[in-house]
Structures are given as structure tokens and as C-alpha cells.
Write a structure and sequence with these properties.
Number of strands: 5
Strand content: 5-15%
Helix content: 40-55%
Radius of gyration: 21 Å
Structural class: alpha+beta
CATH superfamily of the largest domain: Beta Polymerase, domain 2
Oligomer: single chain
CATH architecture of the largest domain: 2-Layer Sandwich
CATH class of the largest domain: Alpha Beta
């Protein structure tokens, strides 16, 4: 416990150094990540949302400060609003979580706290209902992967397909229950927070599938698809954007 607090204090000190020396002119910073939650290890990084009054464009950068790897997402209020909307549309509120749960470093406490409260309100409201093309596409790709995984295949292909299916299954498990989902390691984490028993079942099924025993993972995927009208392949249709064309003689590179 004492070691974790020391890591938190050291990470905050490093973040304050970045705020005053690297991100000069920034209005506020939200410091987040596993270290700040007291869950970090020696390889964990510091996540930062840095907000300036105005910028030509947003950017993301990684660097090391005082021995800590850092991932910084640098915005002004308008670019941050754009990426927050993208988070909400995707159902995986990465940026929103960092703002909502981050430790604030700021020259303007009221504005930073208002921004944090808006992010917390978004999380409390939950994801948008699953409807339309996004819903159809989730069901379609999960159905397609189930069919691919049913066929007899070499072990490396089974492992690759299972790794593709598992996060899509978690997305439908969570979003289909009006719960936020997450990217990468956050999908399993959020599923475990929501339903530990279901998370245990999914984890065990995935581990078995990677080693060639796909029955449990396929069974779970079928159950989830059945809760959403069954497998969906016949009739799936998505239009490409109207601007998705270039002259036929345009060089590929």
C-alpha cells in the first residue's frame, strides 16, 4: 500500500513537471491511468489529457519523464468535444474515462471541474442504444467469425479467429446490456466489473479456444447472438460513402 502511494505521488510530481515545463500555456490537465488508481506496476504509464485554450489541431504523443512512460492526448475544448463524441458513438469512452476520473492539475479550477463533471454525467448516462447500421454490423461480424471458427482449421488460424471474436463478443455482451464497453484490456475489465461470473465464463471459453477447444466460445457467442435475433448474415447491407471513389488511373502509391 505504501509503495503504491509513493508511485502515485511520484507520478503526480512528474505530471506537474510536464504541465509547467512541457505543456506551457495549457489550461488544465487530467492525470489518469492504472498508477493513479493504485493498480499500476513497474511498466505502467501515466495517461494525460492536456487542454489548451485553443490549438490548430489536437495531437497524441508519448515520451518518458522521471522514469515514467507517458501517453499525452493534447486538445483544446473543441477538439476534446469532437473526440468525446467519437467515444460516445463507439460505446468505448476512453477519453471520457480519463477526464471523468483523472486527477486535475489546472490554472482554472472551475473550468476543469465543470469539464470533469460533464464527463462523469456522460458515463452515468450510459451508451447510446444499439440500433441501425452499427448494431447490424456488430451482429454481422460476430456471426461471420462464428461461422469461420466452426470450420476445421489449423491451430494458428483458430487462435487468430478466437482473438478477433473475443472482443466483439464482449462489445455485444456489454453494449447489449446498456453498459459501456472498452478497447483492448478494458473490454475484459469492464465485463468483470459488470458481471464477474459471466467474465469468468468468457475468459475460460476464450482460453480454451486459443488452444483449439472452441465449443465453449462458440456456444457463448451463439447465446449472445440469439439474444439479438440470432446469427445475421443474410440481408446484411451497408452502403459505402458517396465520396469513396478516385479516378481509376490514380497510382496506388
Amino acid at each position: 500500500m505504501q509503495h503504491q502511494q509513493q508511485r502515485i505521488d511520484a507520478a503526480l510530481l512528474a505530471a506537474r513537471k510536464c504541465f509547467t515545463t512541457r505543456f506551457i500555456g495549457a489550461s488544465h490537465m487530467f492525470v489518469a491511468g492504472s498508477i493513479m488508481r493504485g493498480e499500476g506496476n513497474e511498466l505502467s504509464d501515466i495517461d494525460m489529457i492536456v487542454v489548451y485554450p485553443t490549438l490548430p489541431r489536437a495531437w497524441r504523443e508519448s515520451f518518458v519523464v522521471d522514469g515514467f512512460p507517458v501517453e499525452a492526448f493534447v486538445h483544446d475544448p473543441e477538439t476534446l468535444a469532437y473526440f468525446i463524441r467519437g467515444d460516445v458513438d463507439s460505446g468505448a469512452p476512453v477519453i471520457v474515462h480519463m477526464v471523468a476520473n483523472g486527477t486535475i492539475i489546472t490554472h482554472e479550477p472551475q473550468k476543469a471541474e465543470e469539464l470533469q463533471q460533464r464527463a462523469r454525467s456522460i458515463l452515468a448516462r450510459g451508451p447510446n442504444p444499439l440500433t441501425g447500421e452499427r448494431y447490424d454490423t456488430m451482429r454481422y461480424f460476430l456471426s461471420d467469425l462464428v461461422d469461420d471458427l466452426r470450420a476445421e482449421r489449423p491451430l494458428d488460424e483458430i487462435a487468430a479467429l478466437s482473438a478477433l471474436l473475443y472482443p466483439r463478443l464482449i462489445d455485444l455482451l456489454l453494449l447489449g446490456r446498456n453498459q459501456w464497453t472498452g478497447k483492448g484490456k478494458w473490454g475484459p475489465r469492464l465485463l468483470r466489473r459488470f458481471d464477474p461470473s459471466l467474465a469468468d465464463l468468457a475468459t475460460k471459453a476464450f482460453a480454451e479456444a486459443v488452444h483449439g477447444q472452441t465449443a465453449a466460445l462458440l456456444s457463448l457467442a451463439e447465446q449472445v447472438l440469439n439474444q439479438h435475433g440470432g446469427r445475421y448474415l443474410d440481408g446484411y447491407h451497408v452502403d459505402a460513402p458517396l465520396h469513396a471513389r478516385i479516378p481509376a488511373d490514380t497510382p496506388a502509391t
